[in-house]
């Protein structure tokens, strides 16, 4: 089965083509036959297109004009044409899977895209204004390029549908719940994949493990995974809640918002911009939302950058502590995504604060760019893993399962 995956962002559209045997899913992630990415620039509506095949052929072009759908169509054209050709014609593709950030309460599992599904994705765009509209653009681009092909929506919120009410419902008026205001959680595709992969690496049954997964990228969230199910998470009604992030503030006193609205006369747009784009590492350090840049500034004696680091670590430890109480213990701690996979300093700082659990990491292993590896010492009471998140592969798996079932 040939499965094309589209993963939409605010300024990019990534795509991968996988081929999975009809008989059974492999135990480990396959490498895509083909991968492409469109990155939209601010320059005259330009688009940078990069394509690479498993055998090393590449395409890199910048084009201008046309619509975003046309740019995606141009990228997909490279599947069956030119040096990056891996199939004879696009009709060989059996299904297209899309990452959709917000599915609300109605969509808890992957579904075949219908008119009703499209309306729901559009409806929830107000809660995920960066990502849901981009997912809709991707679906439309596939319709234009590949015609009447089966498309599947895989929802980031789906994995957290198992949150108990005590964790999911906010302590405001009960009427909020009737309005759909509740904790949804995000990064679910990643949390689900890395928790299952952790069990596989450890040779343990996922249904017997208590795991905290730390998805640390520009957006950051934690999940408490018990017996393979999400029972708590840090992101909430929107992806703004929870941990301190690259440019998002995470959890703050809601009274601050009332104060800013009343005393500083913030508009809704100004407030949105401050909370989502001018806070977090960027807002505190004044340097960047990118952790390596903050670390570089710390080395140069930048006190605000040091404060940003200290706050980031403090809030991450505190978040892990909250997940720990939900689980009632801990068997494995997992780091994933850009920061989680690539920052030994963050992993070291976090784990040092969890020594009271009997958790110890091998400092040498931690520094050696571990990947899909347990970096805990043999005497550690808790396993600590660094796992490369494979959201695209996870989407392909779920498409395969949906069509097979």
Tags for this model:
405 residues, alpha/beta, single chain, acetate kinase activity, 19% strand, ATP binding, Aliphatic_acid_kinase_CS, 15 helices, magnesium, 8-stranded mixed beta sheet, 14 strands, magnesium ion binding, Nucleotidyltransferase, domain 5
Write up what this structure looks like.
By secondary structure, the protein is of the alpha/beta class. The protein has 15 helices and 14 strands. It has helices at 68-77, 115-123, 132-146, 165-168, 175-178, 188-202, 254-263, 268-277, 280-285, 291-299, 303-327, 337-342, 344-352, 363-367, 391-404, and strands spanning 2-8, 12-19, 34-40, 47-53, 58-63, 95-100, 111-112, 151-155, 210-216, 220-226, 229-233, 332-336, 373-374, 383-386. α1 (68-77) packs across α3, α10 packs across α11 and α11 packs across α13 (344-352). The strands form two sheets. An eight-stranded mixed beta sheet has the order 5-4-3-2-1-6-8-7, with helices on both faces. The chain has a six-stranded mixed beta sheet with strand order 11-10-9-12-14-13, sandwiched between helices. It is an enzyme of class 2 (transferase). ATP binds at residues 14, 215-219. It is found in: Cytoplasm.
